[in-house]
Every structure is written in C-alpha cells, then in structure tokens.
C-alpha cells in the first residue's frame, strides 16, 4: 500500500491554506460530496508526490461537522491506495476494536475519475482506503 493523501478537516479553507503555506491557486479541484455534506478541496504537492484533501463541512449534520467544531483545522484521516477493498476490510475488521466508519463512491477527476473508498477506525486513527475504478 502507498499513501494516497492526507485528509484535513477545516472550518476556514483560506486559514488552512495559509497554515500550509499555500493559496487557492494550489487547489486543483473542488467538489461537493452530497452524501457526507462536505466540500472537498484537492491539492497536489508535486515535490512530495502527495495529495492533500481539505474537507470543509457544509451542514450541521455533515460527516465531519463535530470534528470541525472541536478542532477548526486538524488531521482527520490518512488515505492509502488499494486494489482490493474487500480484502482490506476483512483484514482490518478482524482485529479487535477496529470497525468500518463508511463506504463511499464519488467521482474525483484529480484522482483519476470514479473512486470507491472505505473508512476504518483503528483505535484513534481513521484510515481511508482508496480504489480507483478502471
């Protein structure tokens, strides 16, 4: 597995960008995730060959709203690439204390088009596994 991106939850996109030494010009794509009720802002850092996803809750019941209220800006999840979400799910959920937080499908052009994701809680860490559909 390879690190795909870091997911940061933010209440103020411009403040988060400034903290990272970036600007809105660095955002390659922004989409609204209707399932989770978040704006997703994607930034590629070519010098690290890494993506950053700024997750901005847009409703009180957004999937990240409570996290945002608590932290304003914070590391929410670490995303890894995979070709087999089912095997990953079995492997991680067979361990005591780990559990699935959610499964989503969304189109992210910056990530290659349609992706499927699996979020798993591992103790205090949220892992997202990303599979690009071909």
Automatic annotation (TrEMBL):
Name of one Pfam family that matches: Glyoxalase_4
Coiled coil: none
Highest taxon listed in the record's lineage: Bacteria
PROSITE patterns noted in UniProt: VOC
Keywords from the UniProt entry: Dioxygenase, Oxidoreductase
Molecular-function annotations in GO: dioxygenase activity
InterPro entries according to UniProt: Glyas_Bleomycin-R_OHBP_Dase, VOC_core
Residue span(s) of domain VOC: 2-132
Gene3D superfamilies: 2,3-Dihydroxybiphenyl 1,2-Dioxygenase, domain 1
Name the record gives this protein: Glyoxalase/bleomycin resistance protein/dioxygenase family protein
